[in-house]
Automatic annotation (TrEMBL):
Coiled coil: none annotated. It holds the Pfam family Cupin_2. It comes from Streptomyces flaveus. InterPro entries: Cupin_2, QDO-like, RmlC-like_jellyroll, RmlC_Cupin_sf. This is Cupin type-2 domain-containing protein. Residues 49-115 form the Cupin type-2 domain. It comes from the Bacteria.
Length: 166
């Protein structure tokens, strides 16, 4: 038996061009928070990621599932030490707890959707990144001290969001 409908939850239509979308600049990438954990009762989040050439996070792992669908360009995923180059139209699932990272090594910008289940990565990115005006907004010009503060905050909050940098 499935539970009754919860009328307090509403339909969500995600549009990266919606003026209400939050855009986060993080390590040179720009992330649009399309569907947040707040909207899904914590079940999942969906993030539109623009990754410039050379962009991507350091090696890490976390105890939640992460799935990427490449929309434009190509991304190099390193999964348990093995590299896989993935192009537009493909989807990659990263199992919980597995060491991984991704990098755009293509020489051109790339774009992908990232779904995390359960949610939380959306909140983590919002807490450690910088809000920018839109997907095409340049990243903020941060001083060395500001960059160090972002790294410190990311490391300090990682365990709260069930993540670990390797």
């Amino acid at each position: 038996m499935i539970p009754d409908d919860d009328p307090s939850r509403s339909l969500t239509v995600a549009d990266p061009d919606d003026p209400g979308t939050t855009y986060i600049s993080l390590v040179g990438n720009t992330y649009a928070m399309l569907v947040t954990g707040e909207q899904t009762d914590g079940r999942y989040c969906l993030i539109d990621m623009r990754v410039p050439d050379g962009g991507g996070p350091p090696p890490h792992r976390h105890d939640f599932e992460e799935m990427f669908t490449i929309l434009e360009g190509e991304i190099e995923f390193t999964f348990r030490g093995e590299k896989h180059t993935v192009g537009a139209g493909s989807t990659v699932n990263i199992p919980a707890n597995a060491p991984h990272n991704f990098r755009n090594a293509s020489g051109a910008p790339a774009r992908m959707l990232c779904m995390c289940t359960p949610a939380g990565q959306d909140e983590y990115f919002t807490r450690i990144g910088d809000v920018v005006a839109g997907m095409d907004a340049p990243p903020p010009q941060l001083s060395e001290d500001e960059l160090a503060e972002r790294r410190r905050r990311a490391a300090e909050l990682a365990s709260t969001y069930r993540s670990e940098f390797l």
